Structure formats: structure tokens, C-alpha cells
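Following up on my earlier message about iron/sulfur cluster. Here are the inputs again, as you asked, copied directly from the submission form:
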Amino acid sequence: MNIVLVKPRGFCAGVVRAINIIKRVLSIYKLPIYMNHELVHNNYIVNFLKKNGVVITKNINNIPEGSVLVISAHGVSKNMINDAYKRNLTVFDATCPLVKKIHYQASYANKNNIDTIIIGNPKHQEVLGTIGQYNNATPYIVESLHDANYIQVKNSNKLCFLTQTTLSIFNTYKIINVLKNRFPNIIELGKNNICYATDNRQQAVYKLARITDLVIIFGSNISSNANKLLEIARKHSKAYMIDNFLYFKKQWLNNVSTIGITSSASTPELLIRQFIKYIKQYGNITIKEVTVSKETLSFKLPKILKI
Ligand code: SF4
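Thanks, got it. Here's what our run produced:
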């Protein structure tokens, strides 16, 4: 059996930064450390943090005054940050700098009374955080091509759009084209906010699915970017998403000679290593790594946490 590991896969720069922040905070401050949401959308990481003294609570008012709060990589509303300071919390912000950039764009639109269409999932933590940058008007939300075709806006001459960072590149371009056709004066504030890591992993899984009989995506079903990888892989191959090797089903190997492996931007590489060890019980395997694109981006830690 052949295994093809595609690159890039796994941790992106924003997740590496968020994990380094929480690791430093855990090593410096008294437990428990509070978080407003899962640090990143991966069950392995979330369970690890919970076991090591992290408490997740959506309601800032439940956090004892004077505690330490770490903001998740998805970002939060302005109100939540203000509430945290009102409760005298020490706040460390693990929001990905690429999400922060969207917050600045949203704040600019809010300040200049430019109506905004946010392309994304209105229930996703990142989109809630972006909506929370507005206090002059509520942004419109477009989730699908259907929404893009039918959305009605008050003033199409003072209108911009932003996107969630982890959407499908293939669908989002179609949605943006529809919006541009319907509202020719729409402003591309962020051009397209789908991040480099989402883009690269989707391009990579697209290529992987075309050269393998089965694609296994390591990731959690709470992760938007993991689900998009599955969606793309399924269009071109048999594909499944699992948290770890324990969820793998032997019958998936029927008529399969080449397995493609990738992982979402929040999945530790350790889970892939465990799978490879496990799959060896079914016979000899050869492992090949295919690089679709190279990544070099990294983000600095906040000054106070630097070693
Ligand atoms: S997926 Fe993109 S936006 Fe999200 S943390 Fe990673 S780099 Fe940042």
C-alpha cells in the first residue's frame, strides 16, 4: 500500500502562535487559566488544554475578577474585550493576526458608515467576532450562492464585503463574482480574506484527491477548515475525516492501493504519526511526501510572553 502525505498540511502560523501563547501563559500564571472559546477547533488540543488547567467559558461574567483570560485564535467582539477589562482580567490575545486584519477592516467600515456583507457562517466564532466590531450598523451575512443572488441591501453605493478566513476557495470566488455583478460599486476591503493556510491546504487536498484512491483528513468536525478539506476531497475521491487513528475503519481500504493524507490547520502532526504506526499492521507500506506549495510565514508572540 502507498501512502502520500501532502504538504502543506497541519498547523498554520496562527495556530502555532496561539499554542505558543497558551503554553507560555500556562507556565507563568496560576491555574486555572480561562478561555472564551476553544483555543483552536481541534479536539486533541482542546482536551489537552482542559486537562492542563484551562477552563472554557463563553460568559466573561463567570470568570472570577483578577483572573487570566486568553482569547481564542478566532477573535472576539470589542464588547467582550471591554467586559474583560471591566472585570480586571489579565488578557492575552491569541487572535490570529490575519483575523485581526479583518477586524481593522470591519472597524474602518463601521467608522465610515460603509455597509458590509460578511461572507461566512454566522454561527462561527470568527464571524461573531467580526460582527462584534460594528456598533453603527449590523453587517449583512451571505452564506451561499443563493444568499448572494437574493440579498437586498439599503445602499449598494456604500457597500463592502469581507470573508471568513476558512471558507472554500472554490465556492467563495463564485459568491464574490455574483456580488460584484449585482453591486458593481461594492468595495473589496480585504480583497479576499481567505487566509494563505486555508488556500494552500485546499489546493493541496484537491491535487491529493486526484492522485489517490482514498483521502484521510485528520481534523475535528468542529473545524471549519477541516470540513472544507473534506468537502473538496469528496468531489474527487473517496474521503473521510477523523480525529485520530481510533476512528479509522478497515473496510475503507477495500480496493484502495494509495491513501492520501492531510490535516487541518489546527491538527497536530503527532496524530498522523500515530496513524502511520497503526496502518502498518495491514501490510507493507511505502510513504511518499508530495509538496504542493511551501509556507514560510510565522507570527511573533506578544512582547510580554517572549522568552
Ligand atoms: S487558519 Fe488562517 S486565519 Fe485561521 S489561524 Fe490559521 S492562519 Fe490564521
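One observation from looking it over: The mean pLDDT is 96. Hope that helps, and feel free to reply on this thread.
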